[in-house]
Write a structure and sequence with these properties.
about 5% strand, three-stranded parallel β-sheet, mainly alpha, Protein Binding, DinI Protein, Chain A
Amino acid sequence: MKSIKKLAVTVVLFIGFFMTANAQNKIAHINTQQLIQEMPEMQQANSELQSLEATYSEDIQASKKELQAKAKALEDKTKTLTNAEIEARRAEFEKEAQELQVMNANIEEASKNYMKILQTKQQEKLAPIYKKVQDAIKKVAADQGIDYVLDATQGGGLIVANGKDLLPDVKKELGI
C-alpha cells in the first residue's frame, strides 16, 4: 500500500514537473526561406546576379561562336586543297589548330573564372541579408519572450508547426 502511494506521488510530481517545464519554454516557428524570398533586398540581389550571369554567358557564347567560325574557316581552307598542298602547308595548319586549342582552353578558363566571380558576388550580396533576417528573428523572439524558434522551411527538421508563427511579426519588423 505504501509503495502504491509512493508511486502515485512520484507520478503526480513527475507530471507536475513536466507540465511546469513545458509551460516555461515558449517555442515558435518561422519559414525563413519564404521570408528571405519576400524581402526586397533579396529580389534586388537576385536581379543583379541574374544580370551579371547573363553578361558573362553572352561573353562566353560570343567567344565560342568566334572559335567555331575560325575552326570552320580552317576546315574549309583545307577542303579545297590537295593532299600535296596540305602537306606543303602542314606547319601553317598545325599552328592554326594549336591556336584554336589555346583559344578553347582560354574560353574554358574564362568560364570557370566567371563562375567563381558569380559565387563570390552571391556570397557578398546574400550574407548581409541573412544577417538582417537572423537579427530580426532574434529581436522578435526576445520581444515576445520566445525561447526557441524552429525553422519551418521544408527539410528544416520541423515535424509539428502548431506553435506561434513568427513570419508576420518578423516581416513587420523588416518593413515588408
